[in-house]
Every structure is written in structure tokens, then in C-alpha cells.
Amino acid sequence: MQSVDHQLYLAESHRIPKLSMSRYIQYFNINVKPFLEQCMVEHMIQGYEVYRFRLTAEKRGEFDSWNFLLLLQVESKSVAEQYVKLKQQLTGFPKEIEVRSELMISTPQSNYPTPPQHVQRRAFKPFFAVEYVDVQAPYLDEFRHIMIHNNGPAMRNILEHKKWCYMMIALETLEVWYHHDAFPTWNQIHIIGLYPEAMLHYKKDFEEGLQQHAGVTFQETFDRLKSIRTMLYKTIASRLFPT
Residue 51 in 3-state DSSP? Predict the structure, then answer.
């Protein structure tokens, strides 16, 4: 497998009131999805994914949780800016809160958005872990090094040889275009598609990949990560598109 490096994404995080979610999904399908499809036809965006957060797995701090992520693949910053201007013409959903809009780039050797064929053949759909990660500013280069040389290759090993991982997207914030003051900040978003047996095999298989590619242990790697980054908000999500 080859990592999709230097891919630009526009990430839009939103909070939708729980009781309004079914109406929001209807609004999205009627108003936003046709707009996105037209943007695809016009090559303004190269692809998009929609995630609905269903369960909080980790949370650091006192803040309202957000529960909706729209992720767009874009060719350039200027095209992304054009998309944003056009989207502003859409009729908004009354109770939607825009938490953040940001331009992101894929982390080298760590971005595998297309599942391998042996996983695509599985009958059941995966679930998705969506992670909002805040790396301390002095350690951004070190975190990136760990992703490029340790964690990314370990995940590639899992994707190539195991059957419990569907895909992985690893993104770094380039520019924040909007951020709501009521919510905390982050600088990485990771999305990992998983099957239920991942809970049984994750640590062992990740250790195998780390030893093979970097000669380090799972414990060493994650002890260091805990000291340089905060897992701000980790959710279990379903992907609404593509289905």
C-alpha cells in the first residue's frame, strides 16, 4: 500500500443538537449533498466523507461535544476558498453550530484512505474512531517524526496483513479558517476504520509493526505520545457517506 501524501483536505466540524439530528440529516441530504455532488462534477472537490459521532470514547476538558464532521479532498487552497464562498450561499440549518473549519494536509507515510481489497470483501460495515489530537507546539516535529517512521508504517503493516482495520486518515492542521471560541483547539485529526475484533488484536499487531519498522515497543511509543500530546476528543462514529 502507498500512503496518500501531500493531500489537502478541508475539515468542517459541527455540533448538532441531539434531538435535531434526524432533521439535520434530512436537511443535509436535501441541501448540502447535491451541492457537494455538483462540486465533484465541477472538480472543485475530489471527494468527500461525512461522519456522525455516536459515542464519546475519550474527552479531556469541560466542553460541549460536537458530533458531525465533513471532510473534503481539495486540490489547492484557492479551490478550497472558492468552495467555502459558494457554500455560504446555501440555506443554513437553524440549530447547527459551526465549531471549526480548517485546511489540513495528510501526514506522510500515515494516510491510507482506501481500504485494501481483502478488507473490502468483508460483509459487515466498519465503525470509525475519530480522534481530535492536540500536540504541544514544541513537539510538533517530534510527533510528525513518530507518525512518519513509527505509527504510520505500523498501521500500514496492519492494513496489508490483518483484517480488522479498514482504513486510516491522518491529518495535520495547516490553517484554521474559523474556530468557535466556546470549543477547545487541536492540530491533528485521525480517522481509523475498524471492525469489532480490533479490540482483541490492536496492541499485539501494533507492537509487531513497530518492532518491524522502528525497533521500538508499543509501551515506549505511547508513553512518549502521552507526554507530548493530548487526546482531546475521541469518538466512535458511523460514516454516512460514502456508505
Answer: strand
Q: Is 83 helix (H, G, I), strand (E, B) or coil?
A: helix
As a residue count, the chain comes to 243
User: Three-class SS of residue 224?
Assistant: helix
DSSP letter, residue 137: G
3-state DSSP assignment of residue 20: helix
Read off the C-alpha cell for 44. Answer: 472543485
β-sheet bridge partners, residue 13:
69, 100
Confidence of residue 124 (pLDDT cuts 50, 70, 90): confident
Which residue in 42, 41, 43 sits closest to 74, CA to CA? 43
Is the pLDDT at 107 greater than 90? The verdict is: yes
Chain segment 65-75, per-residue pLDDT in tens: 999 999 999 99
The stretch 60-86 carries a mean pLDDT of: 96
Q: What is the mean pLDDT of residues 18-27?
A: 96
Half-sphere exposure of 89 (CA within 13 A, CB side): 6
Contact 111, 4 (CB under 8 A): yes
Q: Give the other-Cβ count within 10 Å of 42's Cβ.
A: 11
Q: How far apart are CA 177 and CA 9, in angstroms?
A: 13
Task: List the grid coordinates of 219.
Answer: 509501551
